Amino acid sequence: MTTNCTTEAKELPAPPKHAARPKAAIMQVTEAAAARVKTILAGRGKPSLGIRVGVKARGCSGMTYTIEYADEKTEFDDVIEEKGITIFIDPKATMFLLGTVMDYVEDKMQSGFTFKNPNEKGRCGCGESFHV
After folding, report:
1. Is residue 74 within 8 Å of 54, Cβ to Cβ?
2. Is residue 110 classed as helix, strand or coil in its secondary structure?
3. Domain coordinates of the chain in residue numbers?
4. Yes or no: domain 34-124 corresponds to CATH 2.60.300.12
5. Under 8 Å between Cβ of 123 and 61
6. Which residue has the higher pLDDT, 101 or 21?
7. What CA–CA distance (Å, rounded) separates 100 from 78?
8. DSSP letter at 74?
9. CA dist., res. 51 & res. 103, Å (int)
10. Nearest-angstrom CA–CA distance, 98 and 118
């Protein structure tokens, strides 16, 4: 007995389209830090695009945070625009800064930017450097 079977190719339904998730920011900035950055940039005396945050090998614990004026964007900088300021992240620092919160603190003994970094494994006694 002979049977003729024909199968038609059925089109499969297209997979559902998911909305693209927004890219998570490398760093977050508090209102106090943003206000201080605005003050510093306004008092510089010449225009700046923003600030550049990075890390350098330095200090007794191995690494330290750096902040400098950003007069231009380099090719591989990550850019964070938040609370009215622009922060350029040095590409060599990105993996060390993921999840970090930058703050500005003033008290009786000191004032300055602080970094709450979930990647830190320890800090030196003076608090100037850290290691991951």
Report:
1. no
2. coil
3. 34-124
4. yes
5. yes
6. 101
7. 14
8. -
9. 14
10. 8
End-to-end CA, the chain: 75
Residues 12-21: contacts with CB under 8 Å, at least 24 apart: none
pTM of the model: 0.72
CB-facing half-sphere around the CA of 104: CA atoms within 13 A? 13
Instruction: Report the distance separating Cα 65 and Cα 115, nearest Å.
Output: 8
Total Cβ atoms within 10 A of residue 62? 17
Which pair of structure tokens corresponds to residue 18? Answer: 């998911």
Count of CB atoms within 10 A of residue 23's CB?
A: 7
Each residue's pLDDT tens digit, 31-84: 999 999 999 999 998 989 999 998 887 665 577 888 999 999 988 999 999 999
